[in-house]
Amino acid sequence: MSILLSNISKKFGTFAALDQINLEIPEGELVALLGPSGCGKTTLLRIIAGLESADEGRVLLSGEDKTDQEVSQRGIGFVFQHYALFRHMTVFENVAFGLRVKPRRDRPSNDEITKKVHALLELVQLDWLHDRYPDQLSGGQRQRIALARALAVEPSVLLLDEPFGALDASVRKDLRQWLRNLHHELNVTSIFVTHDQEEAMEVASQVVVLNHGRIEQQGAPSEIYDHPANAFVSKFIGQTNVFHLEKEDKIWLRDAGIILNEPDALTAHVRPHDIDIEKNADTANSPFILKDWQHLGSAIRIELARYGQNQGKATPIVYAEMPNERFKSLQLTKGDRVSLRIRHAHWFNGDNTHFLNQSNAECRCL
User: Which long-range contacts link 261-267 to residues 24+ away (Cβ below 8 Å)?
Assistant: First the structure.
């Protein structure tokens, strides 16, 4: 089922939670609504579900206007962050609940319910726990049961509100791939809310970035990361170094590979992995020293500070990343003076919209 949101707006008092949202989601997509707290992503999800009413705008599912229809008429399954399982019911009865409360004319027989519930529990790999109660399950198991319960009524759209937010990091990571595989198998149009960038980039086929009730950018994870539409998206998705070029020392920028002929009100955003570090005989006068580093498994994140700048005060840090083996081969230690080379940058003008890239002749990375 496709989803079309047209001019959706919602206020709570004087606070504008959503401001003229226009969004189209094709059938079968797995979409992440991503953004900081208070950006409107959960409100938007609840409006799609019918749990909240928009002040303005329309909600269309497969071309049919559902704006004024009740939740039960929308064919939507909803999975909450804190599971919302019935504690007095077994796993089996929790999953069967939506089938048992259907109108009599639509309700399957007991045999059909039993068969379907066991099939769903096998799908989420938990049929062996069918006679347990929610309090006897782990957080990850409870969330999978909540998902099975939502799927039992065969929804045309599946909505998930921070589905992994209450789980430990290791459990969340396992369930991300599990959800992606499950979506490929079922091909149900799905939207999940998250503030976890890594989660959105790993699971979703499309990412919608929201901020202050507006959509900043929509696209595939690679497009969002590699081609941010504005400075907010660039800073929010992944880590980036922000250089305010009118305030920077032009000598080190030039030596790092940036030529700037039109410096007015420009900022350069540089990903840590787009900075190369060298330690050689020519670095004696380099303006940077290695302040610290963190081991990230296969990569090393390096903190660089300007040499001799702001003694005794907080010093702006430049972050770089490199493979573990590269770090070992350079034999870097704290306090080493190093030279930098910037391979790629995104450029933004004074109002934070995307301005130039590295191929522009007036403002480029060599």
Answer: 261/362, 261/363, 262/362, 262/363, 264/350, 265/349, 265/350, 266/347, 266/348, 266/349, 266/350, 266/355, 266/356, 266/363, 267/231, 267/242, 267/243, 267/347, 267/348, 267/352
